[in-house]
Amino acid sequence: MGVNRIFAVTTRGLESISANELSALPGVKVDEIAYRRVLASCQGSLAPLLSLRTVDDVFLHMGTWTGINRARSALHILREASDQLQVNPVLQACAEVRTIQIPPTFSITANFVGKRNYSTDEIKQACAAGIVERQGWIYSENDTSADLNLRIFIEGETAIVGVRLAARSLSKRPYKQEHVPGSLKPAVAAALVSLANLTPNMQVLDPCCGAGTILIEAQLSGATVLGGDNNEQAVTAAHFNAVQAGTKVHIQFWDARALPILANSIDCVISNLPWGRVVGTDGPIEIIYQRISEEIERVLAPTGQSVLLTNLPELVQFKRLKCDQQFEISLFGQTPTVTVWSD
Asked: So what's the pLDDT on residue 283?
């Protein structure tokens, strides 16, 4: 087998985590880490790429276009470049991991950084016209009904173009059937889990579990998990999603400020803490964070670790634990902070 150039799309701030996951796959070499993207080379089977959990999607690289400026004349350049795309290699590569009808239907996803004098819809129409004219493929505006999805990512005057390897987005986990306000993206939950470096049968706790995404991702990594929430709707949603995932997850209705858990019994706490915006709180957020922090520290074993996501990192304070790592990501139109704590 030859070498395929690929790029993975991820959440801003998680690029290095996704790069590490890619590097761990056989035959994969990371070539570049960019804004929301990881570019790599893959020698051998592409099938392992479909098991990636910290990325939103993986694309086979089709081309890099330059001269894509902000003027409307760029739409003509995009159409001409689309007309010249070499589609057969990526079509054959996708066909190695899934069935594709011929001629295929295709959708287009377009993103750009900075202001432009044209819209994403106009980018899609320009590129679709070039491909339909040259290849005879069938354009669909509905991604769920298309055989292939083309991704066009424009930054500055450069466009990166690729075809999604999987039939559907990797970020859309089949188990995520039920949602609650503030529910975490599975790929972000998986990234938080990866930061914990879990080993099989570790005891993992999410005291504010929401729809159970972190718990499910941790259990799929081999951990023994326990979680709960003070919202009955969230507990019900978490139970349902856990069943869909085929995971054994212990979920309870509780108050994270008074956990029914023995002291020093948990190896790792991973949680998306209340932000006080999407989900309301029943008291001063400062006091809530103080008590949750106390409970996390109480239940953690002496060698335990905690990975937390919050838009209020200054309110996370421990007496014993020290912050090993802290960085921002983009999520829900905000820039929450990931913090990693240990003894």
From this structure: 73
